[in-house]
TrEMBL record:
InterPro entries from the UniProt entry: Aldose_1/G6P_1-epimerase, Gal_mutarotase_sf_dom, GH-type_carb-bd, YihR-like
Domain of life: Bacteria
Name of the molecule in the record: Galactose mutarotase
Matches recorded under Pfam families: Aldose_epim (PF01263)
Leader sequence segment: none
Length: 300
């Protein structure tokens, strides 16, 4: 179902990736899960671990205008009438390199009615003392400029306690409110005074989040950082580079009887939801052009 699976190891870390969607299906530190895993030979639940490209999040009605032409993407979230998480998530990526600590997969996004551009995508996973690092490079191998965006889709796990008991921190100043029915973005709002203010470590509690954040502080290396801590002291975190100025956070809320709030989706994004319509931070890949974004997951 998901094609071949690939195991990489280094020190205290092990990771397993499947060919479909180049999805991270398991990441462990000293035998403890850092992401919500899924069976490598079964369906991928809730887009866990996939690489979302050539756009992250939603495109409203699957329709957008590019270079004067309106394009219509297939709607894979029909209940909200949106095209969700790109075109590469259902593709079986091809292995280019598989070493003990490193894996490189690639896939080709072919021109279609909804996305009339040809891209070569390459995802490089590597393990080291700093955890799991992933870099995704897109190359425009077609003859026309292409709109582009990307993000990962892991569900992080801080420890054995329920998500409500985890403490979260990340330095975002603003977030995008959304429509309640379709989760489409509204005007940017400050996190100050809101339950979404995690600039200082705060308990998640019963807060429900499925929103994008921005105006995120970076360190001297140009990276941003999120940390998620369990009451026991175990933790998981992410770092990402300045090519991802947006961050989607989702508390994975589900209606009964489905299992709810199993992990925290943390998605560093190059552009916000519905960016193909707003134009905000959409990357314009010229023919022959490339773009790389990277992020890491670490734990202890």
């Amino acid at each position: 179902m998901n094609g071949d699976q690939y195991l990489i190891k280094s020190g205290d870390y092990t990771a397993r990736i499947v060919a479909r969607g180049a999805a991270l299906c398991e990441l462990q530190h000293r035998g403890r899960d850092l992401v919500v895993p899924f069976a490598a030979d079964g369906p991928i639940p809730d887009f866990r671990g996939i690489i979302a490209a050539p756009w992250p999040n939603r495109v409203a009605d699957g329709a957008y205008r590019w270079e004067g032409t309106v394009n219509h993407l297939p709607l894979n979230e029909p209940e909200r009438g949106t095209a969700l998480h790109g075109l590469a998530l259902d593709l079986l990526w091809t292995v280019e390199v598989h070493e003990d600590e490193r894996l490189v997969l690639s896939c080709s996004v072919q021109p279609s009615k909804g996305y009339p551009s040809e891209l070569l995508l390459q995802a490089e996973y590597s393990l080291g003392v700093g955890g799991l690092h992933c870099a995704v490079t897109a190359s425009n191998v077609g003859g026309a400029a292409a709109p582009y965006g990307v993000c990962p889709h892991p569900y992080l796990v801080a420890g054995e306690a329920p998500l409500d008991e985890w403490t979260l921190s990340f330095p975002a100043e603003s977030f995008l409110p959304v429509t309640p029915d379709r989760l489409l973005p509204l005007d940017l709002a400050p996190v100050a005074g809101h339950s979404f203010d995690f600039r200082e470590p705060a308990l998640i509690g019963s807060t429900e989040i499925d929103h994008a954040f921005t105006n995120i502080a970076t360190d001297d290396a140009g990276e941003s950082r999120l940390l998620l801590t369990d009451p026991s002291g175990t933790f998981v975190g992410m770092r990402w580079d300045e090519n991802c100025p947006w961050l989607q956070i989702h508390t994975a809320d589900k209606a009964a009887p489905a299992a709810s709030r199993l992990g925290l989706a943390v998605e560093p994004m190059t552009c916000p939801p519905d960016a193909f319509n707003s134009g905000t931070d959409v990357i314009r890949l010229a023919p022959g052009g490339t773009h790389t974004a990277g992020w890491s997951i670490f734990g202890g």
